[in-house]
Design brief:
The chain has 8 helices and 13 strands. By secondary structure, the chain is of the alpha+beta class. The strands form 2 sheets. Strands 4-3-2-6-5-1-11-12 form an 8-stranded mixed β-sheet. A 5-stranded antiparallel β-sheet has the order 7-8-9-10-13. A hairpin with a 4-residue loop joins strand 9 (272-278) and strand 10. Helix 1 (21-44) packs antiparallel against helix 2 (49-62), helix 2 (49-62) packs antiparallel against helix 3 and helix 7 runs antiparallel to helix 8. The longest helix has 24 residues, at 21-44. It is globular. It starts with 7 loop residues before the first strand and ends with a strand.
């Protein structure tokens, strides 16, 4: 099969209000650029978009800096419950798991469910599936997330959510927990796929469902793919990922679809961000929050949005 297009890739590690300290910024940049480099080399070697997305999500889930997989935030009862989903634009299939505990990579279960007649499973079903897949039990807890939870418990859980990035110097002051990871890929055969994974908001009511395992937060067709991050309820209220993708599928340019959708979200006072690719290889990102932790490969070089804090709602290349 001959390579048809230049692959493109964009990933994110959450959105929030600030990255305290240059150490935080540089460490996050290193983490994101490493993932972009490795996943992009897979795409260049002919790896399918959906496979590359899963690999990228696994790497981000395994990085304790981000709120997904290892390093996930704790919920109000001190437990970790993670959600993840995968959508293959080529097949038009969405699959995911909601509030799963004790696995290392929730995205792996979402990948397994791509070929299942039942494609989205909640906590008990996800746990049963992990047993069937013979995945080893895994504790995703880090000391930083435990400290964060203990501090918050002493304050009677006044914060609406936990920190977006688990950095020691951020722990005291960070309450901007819009932590998700996401990967959108266009492979060499012009196929799109998208994956999103999260540990949730942190300190939330037991049973709360994130947007990360819904088409509101993670959606792709053969025309475009979008992964969202931010406050899940705001993303769900806007149905943001599906809204952007449907607009592109209906003929709007990716840039215009992002501009209109983020403009509406801003008007509605939502707190969120999104990354996107279309089938032509256009790359776009947007946020209504102060920062978006995203990095991308445009076919020539790696770029990122870590210091993008102007008044524009979207960026594009």
């Amino acid at each position: 099969m001959e390579l048809q297009v230049q692959p493109k890739l964009i990933i994110h590690g959450g959105a929030g209000s600030s990255l305290h300290g240059k150490g935080g910024l540089e460490a996050v940049r290193r983490s994101l650029h490493t993932v972009v480099e490795q996943v992009y080399s897979l795409l260049l070697s002919g790896t399918a978009a959906s496979e590359a997305v899963v690999q990228g999500c696994q790497m981000l889930e395994d990085d304790p800096r981000f709120n997904a997989g290892t390093g996930s935030v704790l919920q109000s009862d001190g437990q970790i419950r993670m959600s993840a989903s995968l959508m293959d634009g080529a097949s038009g299939r969405f699959s995911g798991v909601i509030n799963i505990s004790r696995v290392k990579n929730p995205i792996e279960l979402a990948q397994f469910l791509q070929s299942s007649p039942d494609r989205v499973l909640s906590d008990f079903g996800s746990a049963e599936l992990a047993r069937e897949m013979q995945l080893p039990s895994y504790n995703a807890l880090t000391d930083l997330r435990l400290q964060e939870w203990i501090q918050e418990r002493q304050d009677n859980f006044k914060s609406a959510m936990a920190g977006v990035v688990a950095e020691p110097e951020l722990l005291e002051t960070s309450n901007a927990g819009r932590g998700t990871i996401g990967v959108v890929a266009l492979d060499a055969y012009a196929r799109l796929a998208v994956g999103t994974s999260t540990g949730g908001k942190g300190f939330e009511r037991i049973g709360r469902v994130s947007d990360s395992a819904m088409p509101a937060g993670n959606y792709a067709t053969s025309n475009a793919g979008v992964s969202c991050t931010g406050i899940g309820e705001d993303i769900i209220d806007e149905c943001l990922a599906a809204r952007i993708v449907v607009r592109v599928t209906d003929g709007m340019s990716l840039k215009d679809a992002m501009q209109r959708s983020l403009g509406e979200a801003h008007q509605n006072k939502r707190d969120l961000g999104a990354i996107a690719l279309d089938a032509s290889g256009a790359i776009a990102w947007g946020k209504t929050s102060e920062i978006l932790l995203a990095a991308y490969h445009d076919g020539e070089k790696i770029g990122d949005t870590l210091e993008w804090n102007d008044s524009e709602l979207i960026g594009y290349c």
